[in-house]
Structure formats: C-alpha cells, structure tokens
Design goal:
alpha+beta; Jelly Rolls; Arc Repressor Mutant, subunit A; 3 domains; 4-stranded antiparallel β-sheet; 18% strand; globular; AraC family transcriptional regulator; DNA-binding; sequence-specific DNA binding
Length: 298
Amino acid sequence: MTTTPLEELRRRIEKHARPDQTTAIEGMLLARADAVEAPSTNGSGTVFALITQGRKRISVGDRVLEYGPGQYLVASVDVPITGHYSEASPDRPALGFGLVLRPAAVASLLLEAPPGAVAVRNSAAPPAIGVADAEPELVDAVVRMVRLLDRPQDRAVLAPMAEREILWRLLTGPLGANLAQIGVADSCTTQISRAVRWITDNYAEPFRVDELARSCGLSASAFHRKFQGVTALSPIQFQKQIRLHQARLLLVSGADDVATVAHRVGYDSATQFNREYRRRYGEAPGRDTSRLRSLSAG
C-alpha cells in the first residue's frame, strides 16, 4: 500500500517529537499531544504550523479558529492566543509540524520573486493569524525537511533549501499575503508588530494610543483600525490580555500575593484586577491559582 506524504509525516513526527517540541534543525518544531487539555494562553510567535493528526482550536481576541489534518496556520504577528488540542488520545495523538518564520528569509524570497507571483498588501494588513488547507506541494516540502532529522550529514546544506521551499509554497498559497507582510519593512503588519512588541515589553506601563500611533507613523484612527484588524483586539484590550496572562504566571509561581501581583502588572485597583481576572479566566485569582497548582502537582 502506498504511503501518502501526510501519513509519512505523521510517522516521522511520532518518532522525533520531544516534550519541548525542539528538533536538531533550528527553527523546526514537532508537537505531540496524547490528551485533550484545558485551553491555555500563550504568545503565538511568528510561525507556520501544520496539523497531521488531531485538531487544534485557538482564539485570538473575538476570533475562534480550528484546524485539523492537512490544514495549516500562519501567525504573522506574535499575539496572545488561547488554544488547545481539541482531539487527541494516547491511541491517536495530535501531531503537528512547526516552523519559526524569519523575516530575513521571507524578505529574500520576495526580492527574488517574479513580478505578481506574491500578493503584498501595504495598506490593509491581514489578520495576525490565518488558517488554510495545505496543498500537496507544501506537504511534500515539509516531509523533505523532516526527513533530514534522519540524515544529519545533509542537514547543513539541505535544511535551508527546504525552509526556502516551504516559505515559497506559503507565499504563493492562500495565506501568502499574511506571510509576505513579515518580510516587507514598511508593511502595515510590520508597523503594528512594533506596537505589539512595545506593549508586550512594557505591559505594566500606561500609554497614550495617539503617541503609540505616531511612533508607527500612523494617525490615531488608522492605528486603532489596523491594530484591531491584525490582533482582533484594541490596543487597550491587548495590553489587558498581556497583563492578565503575566499575572497568572506570577501567581502560579507563587512569586507574590494577589494584591502585589496586581500592582506589578500595572493595576492601581486590586478590585478592578480581581473583576477582570475573573472575567478572563472564569474564577477569582486565588481560586484559579489553587486549581492550577493542584493540576501541576497531580
């Protein structure tokens, strides 16, 4: 019986996947989940992710996306997402391939691309995250890259070539405009990415939207519209999600009590912090922290 590329990819991911998802090829990730777990919030990173078995569901702001075998995700901006594998079991684990997207590699391909081969949008940025069906050529390129894990003598030469082919297939596919934005220095996505990075790095600090807009070369109204178009959140909502995520990490680690953590992440009012934490995670900070710690201990 002939093995399909997707079946070969499943077999190789099962063989090489590690708990930390890293591999011997820099930037290439392999994921395995043996059970459906509770949704968790993390940064998306800028990444291409292909599911070969199981399903994954993520939410970005008010948007909910789900993708399964033979489908892929492209994240062009590192935004907070809440997600989990919605189908996974020990007998049929969820399996996925990931590739960290490097702006320099994308830019290099854009410079070499024939005119009109890649759609590049500078005026209206696509959403930070998109999902599409993987074409056979893209799956074939991913398989060839994963095969290199069993051929260490070929990795140094062939891994960069495999990365370029994968990026090219993505650029000429249905999410090409999403990926192209990463490699264009003055693209709208790049402008919004700078703002996302500033808020993420300075989440405890207050800011004025008009000042952040000026730093990106945009008017306040255009900045707000484009920021929400990319992240599915307003700048203030985005900062709130980052603050609450960081607070949850601090509370689970036992770093400080609730009031101290609230202040550390930028809240002047512990009451407001408690109210927004409950709205975000469904429980008061103390109760949520106790539950998470008991899950870790178990």
